[in-house]
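Dear H.,

Thanks for agreeing to be a second pair of eyes. The structure we're designing against is below in token form, covering all 138 positions.
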């Protein structure tokens, strides 16, 4: 029984780790281009993501208003998604923002950007605003 418990804990840990990803700077740049982000803004997106989530797709941040910042882009659970069922302005489940598949996260981030611009992210205002942000050399 003891070995079974250890095995289940190990298997659970491995499964959890396999569904998340921490990007390198170059890997993130390449993925953003693959996801269709405009090349001229990729430097801003990389800076935003580094500031918001440290390039970690599984990042969850508890906010003072009771909502959560989720995933690579730290998208707010307050208005952009709902738990357990698709909803919010992005019509998606919040759980889908914290896995390594960033295609749906990217779509939601683009929608958020279209409505709020980069100023919709505190991390961008704090770390990226008024800085020259070229595309990282890879």
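And this is the sequence the design step returned. I haven't edited it by hand at all.
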């Amino acid at each position: 029984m003891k070995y079974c418990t250890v095995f289940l804990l190990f298997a659970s840990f491995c499964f959890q780790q396999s569904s998340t990803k921490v990007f390198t700077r170059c890997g993130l740049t390449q993925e953003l281009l693959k996801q269709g982000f405009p090349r001229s803004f990729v430097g801003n997106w990389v800076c935003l993501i580094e500031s918001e989530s440290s390039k970690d797709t599984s990042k969850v941040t508890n906010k003072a208003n009771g909502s959560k910042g989720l995933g690579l882009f730290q998208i707010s659970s307050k208005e952009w998604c709902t738990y357990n069922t698709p909803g919010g302005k992005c019509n998606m489940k919040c759980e889908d923002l914290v896995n390594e598949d960033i295609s749906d996260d990217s779509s939601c981030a683009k929608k958020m950007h279209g409505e709020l611009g980069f100023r919709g992210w505190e991390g961008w205002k704090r770390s990226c605003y008024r800085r020259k942000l070229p595309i990282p050399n890879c």
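Two observations from my side: Residues 2-18 form the longest helix (17 residues). The chain has five helices and three strands.

Warmly,
E.
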